[in-house]
Amino acid sequence: MSPMRTLRWDSLDAESRREALARPAQGARDQVANDVRDIVAAVRRDGDAALARLTERLDGVRIDALRVSPAEITAARARLSSAQLAALERAVANVETFHAAQRIEPFALDVMPGVRCERMVRAIAAVGLYVPAGSAPLPSAVVMLAVPARLAGCPRRVLATPPGRDGAAHPAVLVAASLCGIETIFKVGGAQAIAALAYGTQSVPKVDKIFGPGNAWVTEAKQQVAADPQGAACDLPAGPSEVLVIADESASPELVASDLLAQAEHDALSQALLVTPSAPLAERVVAEVQRQCGALSRRAILERSLAASRAIVVPDLATAIAVSNEYAPEHLILQIREPRRWLPEVRSAGSVFLGQWSPEPLGDYCSGTNHVLPTYGYARAYSGLSVLDFVKRITVQELTAAGFAALGPVAAELARLEGLDAHANAVERRLALLGGSR
Predict the structure, then answer these.
(1) The two domains 5-26+239-368 and 29-236 share their CATH topology (first three levels equal)
(2) Rounded distance between C-alpha atoms, residue 24 and residue 326, angstroms
(3) C-beta of residue 130 within 8 angstroms of C-beta of residue 197
(4) Domain 5-26+239-368: what homologous superfamily?
(5) Cα(265)–Cα(258) distance, integer angstroms
(6) pLDDT of 230 strictly over 60
(7) pTM of this prediction?
(8) Residue 107's beta-bridge partner residues?
(9) How far apart are CA 248 and CA 384, in angstroms?
(10) CATH number of 29-236
(11) Neighbours of 267 (CB within 10 A)
(12) Which residues 6+ apart lie within 8 Å of 134 measured at CB?
């Protein structure tokens, strides 16, 4: 395989720098959009029949029942080892501990005498949690979605995951769902699952918001149903996984290479970037990536993803941080001396990992933070998933007559300034009533 390209930042012009930080093109978007549009229309029209038909055609399996039975969940638990169960239980506990601290409380205050403003917090009534299967089961995704949904108090939590060739959902996914209190699980995947959750079928209940990662078809389906007022909202824009590692001369080339490979193995469109002020380190890391890759099981994927990955040599750590902020990575790893010293300079990243003992897989699985993160540069404006994504914040205002008398003229003046005389009229009629009662 070809080695990662090494680039010197100071030798690149503006266009070359943009190219150095460009994500791999996802391609065929028009065709994906058309395919998804047809799938969504079929599910809306034919419901469960369309789900069965599409599952057989796209997943190559015929399923007799869409919903997972309690017996299937019991059987799934028996298929996991005690070590696997213990690992899932620890992950759930840590994610719950971290996310429990995110819950927000309602509040009320008087912004001025007689003018009271409040904020209420209400859980989203029905949420759909999508867990892909793809080339590997993702019980960790169940934990990251289901724990904050439960802590937020969402009364209806529905999970969808594709069936395997045997017609069953992966046992680890079912066990993780059970540990997180999910009882309603459907064996359906892809764009058809998103459509079913957004619009409902004879078996699948309609939800208000859909969460979870997926391939290009799933992502496109989420965007299409979110654009439809009759569909469902979606969590955050997502694309292929990515990591940017900032490392100085103190870093271990072996560990840096392992961190790059850990993200590059996700998908052929995944991207791994090394940014370092040390040219010798860059050279050693590139060689180490080549060496470690040869022993990994997903080498075919790695060969493709590493073709779009690079090592970028910069003059200093300040430039490295600036490059990272421009790229806005999903995962940012700081394998440098005194990493916490540089943390205040980080402006755009989905999740940050400090020091050599904080590898990204711990965030993926069990440190407690959420691994559903903005990718493709969306970290400039979006945050990772949290309990806040599962609740609505509703504001309330209540004025006394005295409060209205004091504040009403302000509203009327601003309404006239904006040319909205009906707004002013609604205020001034009340002011007139108050004037007449004095």
Answers:
(1) yes
(2) 16
(3) yes
(4) Nitrogenase molybdenum iron protein domain (3.40.50.1980)
(5) 11
(6) yes
(7) 0.93
(8) 119
(9) 27
(10) 3.40.50.1980
(11) 20
(12) 215
